[in-house]
Design goal:
Blueprint lengths: L12 H26 L5 H18 L8 E3 L4 H9 L4 H29 L2 H6 L2 H13 L2 H8 L11 H24 L2 H4 L2 H23 L10 H7 L6 H4 L6 H5 L8 H33 L4 H24 L3 E3 L1 H10 L4 H14 L3 H9 L2 H22 L8 H16 L3 E3 L2 E3 L1 H15 L5 H6 L1
Antiparallel strand pairs: 1-2, 3-4
Length: 458
């Protein structure tokens, strides 16, 4: 896939700002969802800052050669919940988040040194295109249900669960999707680079119109945007410079107060919750980088190298959690954004990271992002998640599926992954993506001695 902007290209300043904003919007919905799910004092603003600074750390370790944004990892939601569940206070729970992220990040650091010592050849043998391609595909397909569910939701889905709300939300989702696709396909060069910005703005405008009509007519079911978020964020104590610019509630502030309550049993609880998950996300890390490599036409496992990407991801997660509480991970949404817009410029990712950090202090921007209704982001995610899936299928398009070995490997990964097969061991859950990848690797190894004459007969 030929990029409009390659890794080292620098768009003009005006274009760069819009492109950076697009990257931010592509990842922010999922990034701020994690603290909202966990609660306990975690905030979208602090998660935004953590994602931004974590991405800068990643770019540093990868020597500005891997164009991807890091955001809050959903894989650690169970771990984060365990950190609070086992804590006697919120401040100890905050400290548990930092300790857990430190442990998970150190797993990545150790793995990076192992890979540096033994190379990546063994990884390529374990994960050839027939294994990694379907795995990347199910990363997008496993999110399809979330996208479709969001397409039918407004900001008040729980209180106005009616067909009117569903139809209005779906209309906004389809408007968002249509504008995104039309801009990406038919627009001029400038708009073609920012289809998600155009789509989100169009969808938000449509949702706002429904909300205004619903307010004027008293039809609550078509109120899709919660404008009350702006009041709560900016005008709660009266409007002033202090309410327009707010310092995020960084996790380390409360975490440092939790040392007095720390004991060995709690540390063990946190380590058990975090460390196994880090080994699971290691497989997803490889899948994401192989996918990004196929998009930009450069093997990132060789340059800057898997040890560098692991270090960047691991240390970036530690630093990100120190501020936002959420361990970070490379985002498939970011990879899809690079692929669809054909913009792999590192300076775009850098500016998006800086912007994420700066905007976390601007209450109106945090309020705007928080107020984007699920249906609008659902429309965008149809394109993003679909593109992730298709890029996975493209990775094994040259593999001979007439050979039974390849056919069975792909079948095992797709069925178990899409079917949602998971295993739980206490508080640790092996996700459907990781488990499908493991089963795919085992199937590939089991059938690796398939005889050529047997293949020819299938």
């Amino acid at each position: 896939m030929k990029m409009i902007y390659d890794i080292n290209d620098k768009p003009k300043p005006a274009s760069l700002l819009i492109l950076a904003l697009q990257q931010m919007l592509a990842i922010l919905s999922a990034t701020i969802a994690v603290p909202l799910i966990i609660g306990n004092g975690l905030t979208p603003a602090s998660a935004m800052f953590g994602a931004g600074i974590g991405t800068l750390v990643y770019l540093f370790f990868t020597r500005r050669k891997s164009p991807v944004f890091l955001g809050s990892s959903f894989a650690f939601i169970g771990s984060m919940s365990s950190a609070f569940a086992g804590a006697v206070s919120i401040k100890l729970g905050m400290l548990g988040l930092v300790i857990g992220a430190l442990a998970a990040g150190l797993v990545y650091v150790v793995l990076s040194f192992i890979v540096k010592l033994f190379g990546v050849g063994w990884i390529n043998k374990l994960m050839p295109p027939i294994v990694i391609g379907p795995t990347v595909a199910i990363i997008g397909l496993s999110l399809a249900g979330s996208a479709v569910d969001n397409m039918q939701k407004g900001a008040f889905a729980s209180t106005h669960n009616t067909s009117g709300s569903t139809y209005a939300a779906l209309a906004c989702a389809l408007i968002t999707l249509a504008v995104t696709l039309l801009c990406s396909t038919y627009a001029g060069r400038r708009l073609k680079l920012i289809p998600f910005v155009c789509g989100i703005l169009a969808g938000y405008a449509a949702a706002s119109l429904f909300t205004v009509i619903g307010t004027a007519t008293g039809i609550d079911s078509i109120k899709l945007v919660d404008f009350g978020i702006f009041k709560q964020t900016m005008f709660k104590d009266g409007f002033s410079a202090q309410t327009f610019f707010r310092v995020p509630d960084f996790v380390f502030i409360d975490a440092f107060k939790g040392f007095d309550e720390l004991d060995s049993s709690y540390i063990i609880t946190v380590l058990i919750a975090y460390i196994p998950v880090a080994f699971v996300t290691f497989a997803e890390h490889i899948a994401d980088h192989k996918n990004l490599s196929s998009v930009i036409g450069k093997d990132l496992l060789k340059d800057p190298g898997l040890p560098a990407t692991l270090l960047g991801d691991g240390v970036g997660s530690i630093v990100g959690a120190f501020f936002g509480g959420c361990p970070n991970t490379t985002y498939g949404e970011s990879v899809a954004c690079v692929a669809i817009t054909k913009n792999a410029s590192i300076i775009t990712i850098f500016c998006a990271a800086i912007g994420c950090m700066l905007f976390s202090f601007v209450s109106v921007f945090v309020a705007f992002v928080s107020s984007i209704p699920p249906c609008v982001m659902g429309g965008v995610c149809v394109a993003l998640y679909g593109f992730i899936s298709v890029s996975g299928f493209k990775m094994f398009k040259h593999v001979d599926l007439d050979k039974s070995r390849n056919l069975f490997v792909a079948s095992v990964i797709l069925v178990t992954g899409i079917g949602g097969l998971e295993l739980s061991f206490g508080k640790v859950t092996v996700t459907n993506i990781a488990l499908a990848l493991i089963l795919g690797i085992l199937t590939n190894l089991m059938l690796s001695r398939e005889k050529q004459d047997d293949q020819d007969q299938t």
